[in-house]
Design a protein that fits this description.
The chain is elongated, with a radius of gyration of 36 Å. The strands form three sheets. It has a six-stranded mixed sheet with strand order 6-9-10-3-11-12, sandwiched between helices. The chain has a four-stranded antiparallel sheet with strand order 2-1-4-5, with helices on one face. A two-stranded antiparallel sheet has the order 7-8. Strand 4 and strand 5 form a beta hairpin. Helix 1 runs antiparallel to helix 2 and helix 2 packs antiparallel against helix 4. The protein folds into three domains: about 300 residues, ABC transporter transmembrane region fold (Up-down Bundle), CATH 1.20.1560; about 170 residues, 3-Layer(aba) Sandwich (Rossmann fold); about 70 residues, 3-Layer(aba) Sandwich (Rossmann fold), CATH 3.40.50. It is α/β, with parallel strands linked by helices. It is built from 19 helices and twelve strands. Bound molecules: adenosine-5'-triphosphate. The site of adenosine-5'-triphosphate has 13 residues, from helix 9.
Amino acid sequence: MIRLARYMRPYLWPTFFSVLFVFLQSLANLYLPTLMADIVDTGIVKGDLPYIYKMGTYMLFVTLAAGVLTVLANYLASKVAAGFGRDVRNKMFAHVETFSLNEFDQVGTSSLITRTTNDITQIEQVYMMILKMMTMAPLMCVGGIIMAVYQDAKLSLVLVVALPLLIVSILVLAQKGLPYFKKIQKKMDRLNLILREELTGIRVIRSFNREKHEIDRFDDANKDITHTSIRINQIMAAAMPLMMLIMNLSMVAIVWFGGLRINSGSMQVGDLMAFIQYAMQIMFSVLMGAMMFIMIPRAQISATRVNEVLDIQPDIQDTKSVGSSVNAESGLGVAFKSVTFSYPGAEKPALNDISFTARSGETTAIIGGTGAGKSTLLNLIPRYFDALSGSVQVNGVDVKAISVDKLRRMIGYVPQKSVLFTGTVAENIRYGNERATDEEIKEAARIAQANEFIQEMSEGYDSIIAQGGKNVSGGQKQRLAIARALARQADIYLLDDSFSALDYRTDARLRAELGRITQTAALIIVAQRVSTVFHADKIIVLDDGKIVGQGTHAELMETCTVYREIVASQLEKEELA
Ligand SMILES: Nc1ncnc2c1ncn2[C@@H]1O[C@H](COP(=O)(O)OP(=O)(O)OP(=O)(O)O)[C@@H](O)[C@H]1O
């Protein structure tokens, strides 16, 4: 919490005024019972009506002033807390954006969502409460005690018994409740995870008739969180009557002993009334303090979760030596030199001693069975992961020596699973290059074989793509993703199994068009279908993380058993001939 307090720095003035207004409001509240005692003891007892009017008006004025101060203090506290929440959320999002895929896996997407929303809201609320109560509680407590002792020191002895009783019972309840607060944030993560899986996987759930199973799974997580919430509320529910009991018994004692003191002539009625109000103020301020003691550890748990994310140092960052100028004209393309890579915790490397070059102006295809390491290999080029050993080079320079931003600008990447964003078709393609003209967008779409179906859409390039690209087919989505990468006018194009949802004709036409752009760029295509890689300048055959063959189709047919097996499993004998 304290570490996060630095995000309050931009709001120092509103914080100061909020605290000041609370301070003044508390003083006004402490003053009111004294005024009332005067009205009773001087005005009512002596029957002095003008005095009652005068003091009554004065009381009204003080109450009004306290009301205005409360509104102002609350407004400023809310403003500060909301601003703090917005800044931390922004900071968190910007920080998470720098994460490599490893760090995403480390925390988990659902937990990142809960931490950015729910956890920050918890902290925000507590900061708001602290702003309001931090001054009020101690001031009302100390001020109340001074005023109560001033009214009647002997009667104050009742508070000596009541206050410790109140504090001890609060501490006991807080101790019981705290472990549940810790649990509830974790359970919230789990509920989010299940909800996310279920919403994104709704098609699969329906096609396998697993609705009941998923409803049960959600229900279990939901019940789990409900049980914990109920337990917390049970403790809170027990707390309130207990507090009220202690407070009311104290009142009875005050009235009882106060009555005796009035009888004996050592106290006036007005003083007793004021004393009762001070006693209430003292006990309420203790309650407020207790609330803070309960809420702060709860927010502390959230703050730890937020700090955990903010403390993660992305392992893929620009190194100090960054800045080597990369000569895009050199035409060296991409080179892997004895590259080995392992996923954290994996038993064996996903890529083992990989060496090859993918020259600019050429098409390099990567083929291999599922899990052979094809996507992993592509991921090392834009530095989604870093190689454990060896060197990945772009135009003769190690990727670690190029700034991540510059490196990624040189690359047009089409992921295995196409992702589109909510917006128009044109906006989605322009995502690859903000400066692309309408003509360039259309040209990219034409090469990607997307122009035709876009023209057929009701609004053409202005047609809206629904959330997650749900209103376009799998093949159309892939073509839009390819158009987006082409719009980038990059030096290197990485297409990860991007033709899988295309029919053979479209696949062939797209490859022919792509051939044109590879006159200057390096094109690396991961594919499952042999027909897609057939005409590549170089084919790399991956098997279990190792290169088992590289060359043209004809060369590999001569030299590489794995390649021959792949071809044989896909093509008819006559096609081979
Ligand atoms: N994020 C990850 N964490 C741990 N292991 C992973 C991760 N991604 C992939 N792997 C493992 O690395 C190996 C290579 O995976 P990769 O996705 O590169 O294969 P691929 O050849 O692209 O397969 P496919 O054609 O099915 O997409 C597999 O054994 C896979 O289980």
